Backbone:
């Protein structure tokens, strides 16, 4: 049947929508249709809220090592780690070369005195010191016993027509150092006598002060006496004597050597006196000389005296004129 529509056309148009009918039973599953053409992407919806973190998935297999990246900038220095335990002591190294000597250290404190060592070997005796000053004079000894009366002598007051005698004496007050004798019976230095007391015409003492000579110009027997005060300095060991002797024309006069010995370096002098008979010819020369093996020092002592002493003297008296 044809229905006339308000549109004024002759086509069939649907009528008004009827009420929705009851839900029919579900039909059987239709055959799956062909895949439709994908529609255009819709507009992105508003982002939903972040859901809760799901549980961690299991670790996937390790991927292949990627290529090494470029070295990054050096990071800041890390904190020093704790010191490790000391390692075991290694074996001793080889001895090194001796280093240069270091500067001297400060003076240490004096140590405790050690025990006394054993007695050393006795050393060689040192040289004798200089002669000390003369000690004071000792007290005068007691007077000796009276000697026996001698035999009656010649009358000296009888008239005499004899010739005048020959005599002379000279002395020294100066200190003198006499060199040692060079050998047996040889003269060392000669004693000089600068002061002449007297000299008879035939006894010449003009060289006594410079050469110590008494020159005899009358032949005959003479009594020659001499004295001197001296000592050795230094005093050798073992202790020797010192001697002086008369010489006639440079030859020692037999029996004219007298000696003394120093007892201490403190002694300023010892005395020697000699008295000898000597026969002299005209022109003979008498001298007094050192015959010691060491130098002799003559001196005129002054300690303990108020008078001038002598260091040496010699005098000569003619006893008998003529031939022997």
Residues:
């Amino acid at each position: 049947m044809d229905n006339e529509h308000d549109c004024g056309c002759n086509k069939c148009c649907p009528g008004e929508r009827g009420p929705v009918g009851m839900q029919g039973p579900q039909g059987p599953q239709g055959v799956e249709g062909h895949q439709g053409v994908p529609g255009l992407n819709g507009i992105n919806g508003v982002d939903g809220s972040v859901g809760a973190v799901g549980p961690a998935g299991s670790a996937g297999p390790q991927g292949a090592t990627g290529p090494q990246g470029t070295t990054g900038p050096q990071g800041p220095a890390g904190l020093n780690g704790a010191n490790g335990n000391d390692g075991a002591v290694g074996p001793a190294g080889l001895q090194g070369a001796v280093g240069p000597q270091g500067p001297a250290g400060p003076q240490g404190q004096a140590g405790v005195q050690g025990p006394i060592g054993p007695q050393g070997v006795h050393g060689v005796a040192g040289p004798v010191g200089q002669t000390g000053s003369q000690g004071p004079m000792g007290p005068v000894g007691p007077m000796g016993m009276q000697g026996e009366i001698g035999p009656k002598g010649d009358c000296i007051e009888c008239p005499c027509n004899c010739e005048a005698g020959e005599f002379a004496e000279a002395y020294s007050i100066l200190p003198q150092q006499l060199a040692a004798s060079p050998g047996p019976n040889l003269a060392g230095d000669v004693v000089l006598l600068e002061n002449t007391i007297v000299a008879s015409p035939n006894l010449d003492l003009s060289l006594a002060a410079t050469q110590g000579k008494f020159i005899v110009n009358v032949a005959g027997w003479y009594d020659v006496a001499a004295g001197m005060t001296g000592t050795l300095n230094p005093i050798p060991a073992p202790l020797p004597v010192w001697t002086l002797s008369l010489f006639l024309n440079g030859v020692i006069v037999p029996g004219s050597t007298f000696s003394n010995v120093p007892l201490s370096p403190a002694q300023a002098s010892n005395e020697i006196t000699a008295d000898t008979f000597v026969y002299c010819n005209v022109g003979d020369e008498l001298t007094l000389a050192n015959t010691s093996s060491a130098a002799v020092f003559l001196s005129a002592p002054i300690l303990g005296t108020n008078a001038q002493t002598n260091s040496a003297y010699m005098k000569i008296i003619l006893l008998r004129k003529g031939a022997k």
Observations:
- The helical segments are 208-211.
- The chain has one helix and 13 strands.
